[in-house]
Design goal:
Blueprint: H1 2-10, H2 12-19, E1 26-28, H3 31-36, H4 38-47, H5 58-61, E2 68-73, E3 76-81, H6 90-93, H7 110-119, E4 129-131, E5 148-150, H8 152-170, H9 178-187, H10 192-199, E6 201-202
Parallel strand pairs: 4-5
Antiparallel strand pairs: 1-2, 2-3, 5-6
């Protein structure tokens, strides 16, 4: 009831569209209302934590609910974190090597490398990689000295290798055998030790 009042204060007509499950109508829950109703939201979600829609995302989002945003529309409610809670993903936090991917590398990569250096100690190293048809940036851009480029030619090679790897590792159920996967990754140059050398060129 309280949530409906918060939405109605935004736009009574839009709320009617949402209630009628109009697929074009979307209403965001105001941040102050989301904050005030955290206890109730937690109780509702917790009761359904073992359901099909929550059993996988719940462990990732339960501790970051206050930092999430919610929206109603199309007959559903969607709750999404404002940032990816990577600290809650053991496969990432415990990994020996990690890959950060973004379409908006700050300062053409230099800013991201600086961020990386602040986050990790000297036992870790970063190699900024960009997918671009040119190896030389425009005059207004400045590449980090260690930047590597996946050119069109290298990208075609990478795609071909990935397809071949998928076929090879799937042959006779090899995707269930770690030793087979490791062997094929190495064979197609998809390991951390070989990837940069085979699929990138140095930026100029």
């Amino acid at each position: 009831m309280a949530a409906r009042i918060d939405l109605e204060q935004q736009s009574p007509s839009m709320l009617l569209d949402v209630k009628s499950q109009d697929p074009t109508a979307i209403m965001n829950v105001p941040f102050w209302a989301w904050k005030d109703k955290q206890k109730k939201v937690m109780e509702i979600l917790h009761a359904h934590r073992h359901g099909e829609e929550l059993k996988w995302p719940w462990p990732l989002m339960r501790d970051v609910l206050p930092f999430c945003q919610a929206a109603f529309g199309g007959g559903i409610v969607e709750i999404a974190p404002r940032f990816i809670p990577i600290d809650n993903i053991p496969a990432f936090t415990e990994a020996e090597r990690r890959i950060y991917m973004t379409a908006t590398l700050a300062d053409d990569g230099t800013g991201s490398v600086m961020w990386f250096d602040k986050q990790y100690d000297k036992s870790c190293s970063a190699v900024p990689i960009m997918v671009h048809k040119m190896t030389k940036p425009e005059n207004a851009a400045t590449l980090h000295p260690d930047t590597r480029i996946i050119t069109e030619e290298k990208l075609d090679l990478l795609i071909a290798r990935l397809k071949s790897y998928s076929v090879a590792v799937g042959d006779k159920g090899g995707f269930t055998e770690p030793a087979t996967i490791a062997k094929q990754l190495d064979h197609f140059g998809l390991t951390a030790a070989k990837f940069v050398g085979q699929f990138t060129v140095k930026g100029s």
